[in-house]
Amino acid sequence: MTVANFPISAGGFFGSATERGVSSDAGAITKHFVDILGAFYETYSIQEVHRGAHRSLYVAVAEASVVNWDGYGAQPVRRQTAANALWLLQSLPASVPGPDVSVDPDGEIAFEWQPGPGRAFSISIGTGDIVTFAGLRGRKRIRGTEVLVDGLPKSLLFHLGQTLLA
Amino acid sequence: MAFPKVFYFIWGKLSWRNVFRSQGSAVFDDLLVRFLTTNSQFTASTGRIRSSAFLPSPQDLKLSVYEIIGLFPRQIWKLGRMYVGRPSGRNVRARADLSHPAVAAAGLATERDGSPRRHVSITGWQTSKEDQKDRALVLAQNARLVLAPD
Fold it and tell me: How close, in Å, is residue B6 to chain A by CA atoms?
């Protein structure tokens, strides 16, 4: 199987260096390029690359749809949380491996990557537009929050990329 | 077979040590377990446990675990079924074993409250979610997955 490999730090497909030209023709070419890549991303990435994560998301939401789903008094997943999680999953660049999906005790949905011993990165999303993240890279630990305005924040992708590639 | 050999053979079969062995080894390390009731909290094939399984309850900011020192495996699972599985109407699918040093490595502490029996709370959590996730990742990295018997 051949998989297109785009740098995470450049924002995946849409971060490719196509915006150097300043003329109207260059702008048209850029738009055309982005449209083609966008269509490809929709059909290839969402349906193939992250298919496992989509399936895991539906299973996790189904398992955590009632109060006390974990036996310790956890809150159920809300509809808006599930919708936000789906959006976040679809916003992941194709070059990022599919995450493990689980539900936090407060009803938020967590996406987690564990590329190796001592390395992990986790993002939680709830009903709002704020995501919380934390990561481990050996003895280095990072954590923070980001606001989702227009797609995944580049800082989030940077930290994720650092964890995956370390 | 000479009498001494027959004697030692029968004695060996009846000894307490062999009775214990038939039930698996008792746990003598000072271990804590978190019982897991959903498949999305772990991956059986890789032995990985998600950090979300170690986040504290939002109600009291405590992570509920059980102390299993001196228990045989079947007693550990019975504990999980009794206090976690049955009240929630779910099956206990696996457990995450944690050591006290692992808890300390995450900057957290343990509080034995004994209610229910062998119950321990992991305390010291901050209210911010990012801090909780950070500590939960450390716990997940140091935990060991044990699947429930069929």
Answer: 51
Contacts of A114 in chain B (CB under 8 A): 48
Mutate to test the interface with A, among B90, B128, B129 (most CBs of A within 10 A): B129
ipTM tops 0.85? no
- Say which of A56, A59, A132 has its CB closest to residue B133: A132
**Burial grade of B90 (CB within 10 A; 0-12, 13-18, 19 or more):** buried
Taking only the tens place, the pLDDT of each residue in B23-55 is 566 666 679 999 999 999 999 999 999 999 999
Distance CA A109, CA A107 (A): 7
Q: What is the pTM of this model?
A: 0.78
